[in-house]
Amino acid sequence: MLLRRSLLQNLVYVNKKRLLKFQSEFTVFYSSNEKNNEGEDEELVYSDVPRPGKKGERKPYPTPMKELIRRAKEEKRIRQENPCRMLELPPENGLLVPDLIEVAKQVYHARESLLHSLSLLIDGEAAIPVKKCRFCPEVHIGHCGHEIRSCEGRKSGSRDGIHVWGRGGIRDVVGFPCCYHLYDRVCKPRVGHKDRFGIQRLPAIVELCIQAGLNLPGYPTKRRTKPVYSIEGRIVDFEPDNEDKSLDPPQEQFKFEVGLTKCELSLMALESWFEMRSGAVKLMKKYSVVTCGYCTEVQVGPKGHKVRMCKAAKHQFRDGLHAWQEATIDDLIMPNYVWHVRDLNGSALANEMKRYYGKAPAIVEFCVQAGAPVPDQYASMMRLDVVSPDLDEYDLVA
Questions:
Q1: Distance (Å, rounded) from C-alpha 307 to C-alpha 311?
Q2: Is residue 297 classed as helix, strand or coil in its secondary structure?
Q3: What beta strand segments (E) does 98-247 contain?
Q4: What is the C-alpha separation between 220 and 85, in angstroms, rounded?
Q5: pLDDT digits (tens, 9 = 90+) for 34-62
Q6: Residue 205, CB half-sphere, CA atoms under 13 Å: how many?
Q7: E-strand stretches of the chain
Q8: Reduced to 3 states, what is the DSSP secondary structure of residue 355?
Q9: pLDDT tens readout for residues 269-296
Q10: Which residues contact 261 (CB under 8 A, 6 or more apart)?
């Protein structure tokens, strides 16, 4: 009996040891496979169309609220420790950032090149057609508008959500929201409600370039040579304003290439769009841009204006004022996503097949239809790897 019991105990010990060894080897093998799969996933570039927020819901903050509160407390502590101080870092002190002056000129040139290319591609016999819904902001690139029932405009219920298509233009392909021009972005950063008719409005991307160092005729701006002071949180400028606003600054001269083919124009437009967006991102890291949390209004400057013109959700509680927050690049340059069409001469996109269709920014879809190659970052968004079934087979697909 004792011998039998000892043999059983030894057998149980050996089995436990084998089991622990197998578990450890399996854990190591599984973790290594997970790391390899993660590495493979990191190499794959996948992106999808950002989902729009619920109607009446505020836009998400680009910077977390805890970080904004921490920055505000830090600024308050600095003001209390040193009530009267000279601001050292540009552009908060009123001076320009030297490294971004050339970037501002490149962004403006890229915008002008983009508009010039689009104007040549939209007009003409071999032009790419652009359709715009008469009752909502929906845009479509193609000879005939799609049949997807997504219209939310006036009397859309009586039309069962079907769009009413008309002819579109450059503004429908690329969206540039406008803002008020600031002559002095440091000492007078806000536009009052009574001053709204006496101040010019221009595209926000152009205003950003002007504040970053671009000189344009008709839009004078104050260029300082000495930094400003902060006295108990208020900006004070001891430099006299001797600049004559009636004299226009020297105009920036840009040249465009002529005699380009349709494919070359589409390539130039797409490159200009990417260059404009990348340059604008660099400028927005230094020069603040704010947007309304409920509508598309944008203002370039440290603070938003006080014009009571907001008509979005909850505007009654704000007396028509905008709910300003930090802006993103999509607020400054609207991508305006449209459905991707694989064949311009094919049939219209069907509502029943919309889950098989991809989307892309209107400018990307327009340039691709004109002959430009599909950018890598938008290939998955356009669902080029998805094979769409026929219209009579869509209900047979799981």
A1: 12
A2: coil
A3: 130-133, 139-141, 165-167, 178-180, 201-203, 229-231, 234-236
A4: 28
A5: 344 444 444 445 567 777 777 788 999 99
A6: 29
A7: 84-86, 130-133, 139-141, 165-167, 178-180, 201-203, 229-231, 234-236, 289-292, 298-300, 324-326, 337-339, 359-361
A8: helix
A9: 999 999 999 999 999 999 999 999 999 9
A10: none
CB 164, CB 134: distance < 8 Å: yes
Place of tokens 């859309």: 156
Distance (Å, whole) CA 335 – CA 325: 20
This prediction has a pTM of 0.83
- Residue 94 — left, alpha, or beta (φ > 0 → left; ψ -120 to 50 → alpha)? left
In angstroms, rounded to a whole number, what is the distance separating the alpha carbons of residues 313 and 299? Answer: 19
Amino acid at the residue 69 = I
In one-letter notation, the amino acid at residue 398 is A
Query: Tokens 């790897």 sit at which residue?
Result: 385
Q: What is the pLDDT of residues 341-356, one digit of tens each?
A: 988 888 889 988 888 8
Q: What is the DSSP string of 234-251?
A: EEE--S-----TTSPPPP
